[in-house]
Specification:
about 625 residues; disordered C terminus; alpha+beta; 8-stranded antiparallel sheet; about 45% helix; 20 strands
Length: about 625
């Protein structure tokens, strides 16, 4: 596989979402860039999806999510280089950013922003703890030795002091002073305070205190930092400038920490205990049902970005009982999708699909990252995704029926399996995982799916396509387009046209795969697999459809020469927009080069360029 050009991907995606000025915040998780957008109408979704390296896009939790895969940190870093968005990461986002969102979306966005920076550290130290527990279980290491004590401290420290990490990310999110938040969180895990847990007759100025454990806790610090953010803004407006810098944190620590010990901590402990108890009840009374639901729906939750809401539940379970039953069936869900994409790799005759499926399977099995498999292969093919859900339902039900639970927070993957060895039936775990892997794999290989190659009448040595001019105007090289993304070929190769008549026609027989209501861009797909994007003007999405009249709709079949869009060149130009129109092929793996590009005056229907196919099977 070729190395992704991170700079081109970053430039294309940033341009597609409407530029830096249209972004309120940006963060990345394991596989996605997560944008909070100011104006959704300014997003050129076709351009974003056509960007090299982009697997898919999704809109969930109040975010516009661009799925990149395992290389998302590199793309994020490149965006940071060409913009100021490094200082606008979503973990610094407040509720005032972006459009108003419903309560669920706001909650998911908050959890995502606060927990995203911590996930890899939690997963890494959790994996170390899982391996350590497995070593003790199998007799490889004596837990009475100092070696064990040191390794246990390394694996346990981060989650034990989780309130300190959450203080930092919550402070960024709520716009509070980070070091004041750390001072508050530090009091929660101070050794003498920890030692008071369970001690009777504790008082604070005569007021009874029910001391609970704040080690590994989640809810208290998030709530208290939210209160801190509001209190800080109030105090900064009321206190004199000469003293507010040091008096504000003094008052906040002196007031908010006792408030937590007296009320917020016990209440959150009650809530956490209730949630953990409720989960435990489900997985005790009907464990197979709880496992089947989580195993079947987990990847659906991932698609819609809803999975972040389960992170606090898992940490609440771990804090309350030292185990998390929610985690175990997720292994079935993840490995089932990895098995389904492996089945696609075995069955398909499509070389491009195989090249996608192989690394996606490896990523799913070893790292537990399934977005490349889901968005790149399983979901577009439909049946493999369904087979994966079936495997997750059966395997997750079996695993939970065996009482299996995790003893650490890890990413569900083959490497994270040691976290499941200490609780429940190992036999049911193995059987459940075997079913979760074998069922979708066999269904994919035997029952199958609609293979793109299977629709081709016969193998041919490449199918070149003559792309006709969709406009009357002047053809110019793509490199002369005054837009770095198009000129640099980040979205594909082709030719640009400066139109003289405001009518856009189909350049070949095609299926309309993208027809924006704004009328500024059209996506077309030829029967032989060529995919074209025609973008009328530059930044014209900002017109919101004004001066454009769309004549076709998505899913419509068109013939070469059919009218697609009418537009008012004079009005668009008068509004300050360049009408130069790139005509590009957006799947360069199948059509890596263009030939015979036109130059100078052209009329619609004239040959514009030749899209030259790879010398391999033509894909229908």
């Amino acid at each position: 596989m070729t190395q992704m050009d991170y700079s081109k991907t970053a430039a294309a995606v940033l341009k597609g979402v409407g530029g830096e000025q249209n972004v309120s915040s940006l963060v990345h998780c394991a596989t996605r860039l997560r944008f909070v957008i100011k104006d959704d109408s300014k997003i050129d979704k076709a351009a974003v999806k056509a960007s090299p390296g982009v697997i898919a896009t999704a809109e969930a939790g109040g975010q516009y999510q661009v799925v990149i895969g395992n290389e998302v940190p590199e793309v994020f870093a490149e965006i940071a280089k060409i913009s100021k968005l490094a200082g606008l990461s979503a973990n610094e986002t407040s509720a005032s950013h972006g459009p108003k969102r419903n309560l669920l979306n706001r909650f998911i966005a908050m959890i995502s922003a606060i927990f995203t920076p911590l996930v890899w550290a939690l997963a890494g130290t959790g994996l170390l703890k899982a391996f350590l527990a497995a070593a003790v279980t199998f007799g490889w290491l004596d837990n009475t030795t100092t070696t064990y004590v040191i390794l246990n401290a390394l694996s346990d420290a981060f989650i034990n002091f989780l309130p300190l990490a959450l203080a930092i990310t919550a402070a960024k999110y709520f716009k509070a002073e980070q070091f004041t938040s750390l001072a508050i969180a530090g009091a929660f895990v101070y050794p003498s305070i920890v030692a008071l847990n369970g001690v009777p007759d504790i008082t604070f100025f005569g007021i009874p205190v029910t001391m609970v454990s704040y080690v590994s806790s989640v809810i208290p610090i998030i709530v208290i930092v939210w209160l801190q953010s509001h209190a800080e803004r109030f105090l900064y407006t009321k206190l004199p400038a000469a003293i507010r810098r040091f008096v504000t944190p003094m008052l906040l620590v002196a007031i908010l920490v006792p408030l937590t010990f007296l009320a917020i901590g016990p209440l959150s402990n009650l809530i956490s205990g209730g949630l953990a108890g409720g989960i435990g009840w489900i997985f005790t009374v009907l464990p197979w049902l709880g496992g089947a639901i989580m195993g079947g729906l987990w990847q659906v939750f991932v698609i819609f970005g809803l999975h972040w809401g389960f992170v606090p539940l898992m940490t609440a379970e771990l804090q309350s009982t030292g185990l998390t039953y929610l985690l175990a069936p997720l292994f079935a869900a993840v490995l089932a999708q990895a098995a389904a994409v492996t089945g696609v790799w075995v069955r398909t005759k499509d070389a491009n699909l195989r090249s996608l499926a192989a690394p996606a399977a490896l990523s799913g099995f070893l790292a537990g990252v399934t977005e490349p498999a889901i968005y790149g292969v399983n979901l577009p093919l439909k049946r493999p995704f369904l087979y994966g859900i079936i495997g997750g339902v059966i395997g997750g039900g079996m695993i939970s029926a065996g009482g299996v639970a995790g003893n650490a927070f890890v990413l569900p993957s083959a490497l994270g399996l040691p976290a499941l060895f200490s609780e429940g039936s190992v036999v049911m775990l193995v059987l459940g995982l075997a079913v979760a892997v074998l069922v979708p794999f066999l269904l994919t290989v035997i029952v199958g799916f609609t293979d793109p190659v299977a629709e081709t009448a016969a193998p041919v040595d490449g199918t070149d396509l003559v792309v006709l001019s969709p406009l009357d105007g002047t053809a110019v090289p793509l490199t002369e387009v005054p837009d770095a993304v198009f000129a640099g070929g980040a979205l594909g190769k082709g030719v640009a046209i400066i139109p003289r008549v405001g009518a856009l026609y189909a350049p070949f027989d095609a299926l309309v795969v993208a027809a924006f209501p704004t009328g500024h861009a059209i996506g077309l797909q030829h029967a032989d697999g060529a995919e074209a994007l025609i973008h009328i003007g530059l930044d014209t999405v900002k017109l919101g459809g004004k001066h454009f009249s769309l004549k076709v709709e998505k899913g419509q079949q068109v013939r070469a020469g059919d009218l697609l869009v009418e537009f008012d060149i004079a009005a668009i130009t008068a509004a300050g927009y360049d009408v130069t129109t790139p005509v590009i092929i957006t799947n360069p793996k199948k059509y890596p080069t263009i030939g015979s590009p036109a130059s100078g005056p052209v009329a619609h229907g004239d040959a514009l360029f030749l899209a030259i196919a790879e010398a391999e099977l033509a894909i229908a």
